[in-house]
Amino acid sequence: MERIKVSKLLKSVEFGMDVNVKGWVRTKRGNKNVAFIALNDGSIIHNIQVVVDVEKFDEETLKLITTGSCISVIGELVESMGQGQSCEIQAKEIQVYGTADAETYPLQKKGHTLEFLREIAHLRPRTNTFGAVLRIRHAMAYGIHKYFNDKGFVYLHTPIITGSDAEGAGAMFRVTTLDAANPPKNTDGTVNFVEDFFGKSTNLTVSGQLEGELGAMALSEVYTFGPTFRAENSNTPRHLAEFWMIEPEMAFFEITDNMDLAEDFLKYLISYALENCADDLEFLNKMYDNELIERLKFVVENPFERLPYTKAIDILVNSGHKFEFPVSWGTDLQSEHERYLVENHFKKPVILTDYPRDIKAFYMKQNEDGKTVRAMDVLFPKIGEIIGGSQREEDYDKLLARIKEMNIHEEDLWWYLETRKFGTAPHAGFGLGFERLILFVSGMSNIRDVIPFPRTPKNAEF
Ligand code: 4AD
Ligand code: MG
Questions:
Q1: Beta strand 87-98 with 48-53: parallel, antiparallel or unpaired?
Q2: Residue 150 Cα, ligand 2 centroid: separation in angstroms?
Q3: Which helix (H) or strand (E) is 247 found in, with range?
Q4: Is the minimum distance from the CB of 158 to ligand 1 under 6 angstroms?
Q5: N or C, which end of the chain is more exposed by having fewer CB within 10 Å?
Q6: Are residues 303 and 347 in the same domain?
């Protein structure tokens, strides 16, 4: 008999039919006559209840069915008399695939803390919380591809190992096959990377943007969606050393088009979650964040506030609010400043533009004032920065001057500079942090809980 997933069964099976379900036992209770097994197969947050007439089954087999064990059940789907479920399975055959010793199975009891669950990342997908988060994560990945595909963007695979370290977005992880204990040396004592696998020093990418720009200068509209790596030692609830980023890059887009796309994209994704992840969102709303669904709807329904950095600084300076990090024109905004603007002042998402050039990357288009660049950051409630982007400097001379001014090795970027030499065009793009999006949509409060296996300083166990 063909297996049916619980998600499908709850939607489409008629009472009286025989079905085969397979999954992991969440609980087993009952008495000497009848046992009730709550079975979950990860296809949906809901369990299916299996009712077992004890005397029809071998006692030894039934003993093996404990929380965490994996079983296959064949039985008739019947209307449920119990509360909280519409149907249940009257078991006819049960096969035990794998037992889970009650003494040692870590998820024997409910109600573990999220901190504890991080230590058992190999098992936490079996909890309701992580099932919900991981299904939402999947739906968002799918929604992202759908959004761009429907708009005619081309998915561009940019390299994960990169020979350029010029983006300046963060400290990098080196990729090498040299002997760590005894690397070849130059006469001046530095490591000789000519002997390394790629014949030069290479790192894991911090962003696919620079290569994304090369794609946009041929395909018009592209996006990347891949893992990125930053070796910063920032142990915060919003930073990972390995995170996923979505980076659209569009020829013929100016900063306003870029903002319009970012806002539309975020609203699309949140609506997509509201429509397609309703059960999981209801669960998370109930368990973790009672305002979650309301907040998601609010963001979809209201225009984002747009203002220049300089005005935001005025608001912060005049707020009378005591910040841990002082704020003045020229300083980079900390998450407390971003959240003040979003949560206290405007009470909605904010897009800040025209940041001081000195705190932003070399490739951003310079404004006429000589002080600011056409940057845009999208700030979200509870998150702070969720998107960072800009219009790009398309003028060869201005870009080169900026590269020199910032002491970036021009020779590492010859290929990037050539786009400005051959058929340059106005263009813009942005990067959405995938885990920050999932944080917002799921209402979870720590980024370690929205990626299956988080990579943070001193933590790469699984
Ligand atoms: O603002 P960032 O550094 O921008 C870039 O990398 C540009 N190249 C993007 C572009 O214009 N194509 O990073 C973009 C986003 C941030 O807004 C944030 O959401 C996320 O990536 N992000 C992180 N997420 C998790 N952990 C980290 N350490 C992150 N650093 C950035
Ligand atoms: Mg940024």
A1: parallel
A2: 27
A3: strand 242-251
A4: no
A5: N
A6: yes
